[in-house]
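Need C-alpha cells for this chain, all 210 residues.
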Amino acid sequence: MAGKDFERSVFVNCPFDAEFEPILQAILFCLVRYGLKPRIATERSDSSESRLAKIEELIWSSKFSIHDLSRTRSVSSNEFYRLNMPFELGIDYGCKRFGPAPVKHKHILVTAEKPYEYQAALSDLAGSDIAAHDGEYTTAIRKVRNWLVGIGGFGSDQASKVISEYEDFQEWFLEKRLDEGANEDDLLDTPTAELLDGMLLWFDSGMPRE
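Here are the C-alpha cells for all 210 residues:
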C-alpha cells in the first residue's frame, strides 16, 4: 500500500556524479518549489539496507517519478554502460503498468542530456516523449516545470520566474553555509538531506536574498 505522502512524493532516479550535480540540484529545487517531496536514494544512508529494496520502496511510495538517462553511454575504452538508471525506470514502468491503484496512476518524466542519444542503449523508448536538458540547469528547470504544469494542479508561473528563484536560493544557501564555517570541501560534498532542508528553510523564510 502506498504511504501517506504518496500524492506529493517524487522518485528521482539520476546520476550522482559531480558533473550532473547542478542538474540534480535544479530538479530538486523545482520539485520543492511546487510543494512536492523529492525521494532519492541518497536521502538516507544505512549500510545495512539493501539498495534495491530501498529503490523499490521509493518507487512504490511516489506518485511521480523523474528518470534521467544521461549516463547510458560509455565515454572511454573499457567502460561499461551504466544500467542502474534504465533498470530503475523499468521497475517504475512495470509498477505503473501492472500495479494496482494508486500506483497505476503514476506520472513519469524521462530526461536525458541529448535528444535521441538514449535510443542506442534503450531502443524500446523510441517514440516516447523524452525531455532533453543539454546539460543546462536552466533547461532542466524548464522541462520539469513544463511537465508539472502539463499534469495540472501546479499553477502556471513561468519557467523564467522559477529559474530566478533558484538562482536567488543558491546565493542565499552559499552565504548560509559560509557563515556556518563551511570550507570548499564542505561545499562540494553537501549531503542531499542538508540541501533539501536548506530549500525548505529558504521557502519557509520567505525566499530571502543573500
